[in-house]
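Trying the structure run again after the queue cleared.
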Amino acid sequence: MRVLAVLFTLLTALPAPAHEFLLGDMQIIHPSLPATPVNARSAAVYMALSNEGPEDERLLGIETPFGMVRFLEPVTDARGNTRMRERAWVDIPAGEIVMLARGEMRGSLANVNRPLVEGDELTGTMIFEKRGRFDMFFLIDPVEAEAEFDPVSLAAPAVSETDRAADIAAIARALRDVLAAPQAMIAPVALAGDVAIAGWTDGRTGARAFLRRKGTQWQVELWSNDSLLLPATLTSLGVSRVQATALRAEMRAAEAALGPGFTSRFDAFPGTAHAPRDKP
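Done. Tokens:
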């Protein structure tokens, strides 16, 4: 029996829906737009793109009933002034997770000629350089609240980008192997030296997993809910204060970008499950 089959029986009420698509080894995680007021004529476009394939990819465009999505990124000049600069495409390197998120590069949709209502869907077609066209849909999330700061922009990578790409791919393989779920979505991933926290979802179920590097391999030790992000939990797992702070900050920032509809599944996991020593 699959490990997840036992765990699923423990779940009762499920959180608000999120969604994702799998295009080969490309995960398209919770593509969404915030609901808009009646007089709004534009909307932000958010999602996460996880490329677990061996080759780099580019997102060349997204078609919607309102027209094409523009890709914008914040740039800061020598005087500290920040403006949004348009990009022709979005690079998605092999082994990387790229986010269109508040405070980072994002999508922008103009000519929105009707209100976007929370809970509705908006059809779209993503155009990839190598994978071609892919029909999908956006969920309309709650109205975007203004904030004094953007937690996504405060999170700094804990490892080099080169190491991170290889580690994310290895972590995804290790988690899917232990869960016996090759279709499971692995995102987000936070790294700090030889320890990591990764979110996983399989259908409407998910959790946060704790992994440790042993030699050249990543090993899954356990998965849990929000309690995994508590300082006391990480300390009990032998994680230093510096590493714990980095893990918690990076995970919180990445989860904020994905939105509560996606990450609430992690919080709903009942308790803590230790990974089996042998493959199921």
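Residues 1-16, 147-162 have pLDDT under 50 and may be disordered. Worth checking whether this holds up in the mutant runs.
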